[in-house]
Amino acid sequence: MQFDATGTASQETVRMDAPVESGGKGEGIRPMETLLSAVAGCSGMDVISILNKMRQEVTGLSIVVSGERAAQYPRAFERITVEYLFRGRDLSEAAVARAIALSVEKYCGVLASLRAEITTSYRLETD
Prior knowledge:
alpha+beta; GMP Synthetase, Chain A, domain 3; two-stranded antiparallel ribbon; 3 helices; 34% helix
């Protein structure tokens, strides 16, 4: 139940695992947690980039992402909540709101992918 995901560009690795009660060792982040983390990372990078272009002096950003999952399988997220906590000097509320809206509506590829059409393929290899 344990998988290592390696980025094609970065070559960085993230370990994913199931909890012990589901047959895993509990030694990695859960796949659905990874999805929420990707939302935070993608949107956070967008927002900081946009605010820098707006000459906003952001000294820190924390993002808490939570999701409510359906009770029935595949237990997809029905709602995702993203809470941004900014630190900075003389931050404009309008600039912050605009940066978040641009990330969510236009720039964050992770959020856009959640609305994407999914296709699959497979290969069989003989041992």
